[in-house]
TrEMBL record:
Keywords: Hydrolase, Metal-binding, Transferase, Zinc. It comes from the Bacteria. Belongs to the purine nucleoside phosphorylase YfiH/LACC1 family. It comes from Roseococcus suduntuyensis. This is Purine nucleoside phosphorylase. GO terms for molecular function: copper ion binding; hydrolase activity; S-methyl-5-thioadenosine phosphorylase activity. Pfam families: Cu-oxidase_4 (PF02578). InterPro entries: Cu_polyphenol_OxRdtase, Cu_polyphenol_OxRdtase_sf, Cytotoxic_necrot_fac-like_cat. It catalyses: S-methyl-5'-thioadenosine + phosphate = 5-(methylsulfanyl)-alpha-D-ribose 1-phosphate + adenine; adenosine + phosphate = alpha-D-ribose 1-phosphate + adenine; inosine + phosphate = alpha-D-ribose 1-phosphate + hypoxanthine; adenosine + H2O + H(+) = inosine + NH4(+). NCBIfam families: peptidoglycan editing factor PgeF.
Amino acid sequence: MAEYLTHGALTARHGFFTRRGGVSGGGYASLNCGLRGDDDPANVAENRARATAALGAARLVSLRQVHGPAVVEAEPEWTSLLEADALVTDRPGLALGIITADCAPVLFHDPVAGVAGAAHAGWRGAVAGVLEATVDAMVKLGAEPQRITAVIGPCIAQPSYEVRADLRDAVGDARFFAPGRDAAHFQFDLAGYCAHRLSGIGAALVLGVDTLAEEDRFFSHRRRTLAGGGPLGHQLSAIML
């Protein structure tokens, strides 16, 4: 069974899926939902079908994520992946899916307006404004910022996320960096930074799960890099009305 985590503040059906409960093998074991790797497409399709069924959704829609600020309104008739990093909907039964492997999956809901959103927020996308753009897109569908709750799901945690000065300078806010192993390295609080970017909504909450630290539960791009390369799976996070 596809395993997923939830947060009580989100009243819409949702799941931050782990890597458990799928059919992929090797470095993709087991619930790999990424569409751009070298995993067997039939396995990926089965994994995504298991996640969709676990949520009770009529259909799962997702994107070709590019680490940018673009947001689109989800359409059940999509036959190809659009390039964007967030999607929104006011249609019941349609699961909005984001894939990650250290970046932050962020799920949004306005229960009064009946509007949901999902965003992929790596540091580039967060700096570019993808989270605020998701809120703006939800507002166009009738949501109000003060009613929106967002939950930042499993992502790489600050103690695990050592970066160089160029990333620190690109983010431009020293509050989200701690000292690293030497003067040239810093530890970045991605989840905290995402929550800060969402300070204008009703609530922005952090699930507080480190993808790098839990190899048995989560895929991690940084873990794969530290190991010298190899296959990289991606976990799914999804929300539906």
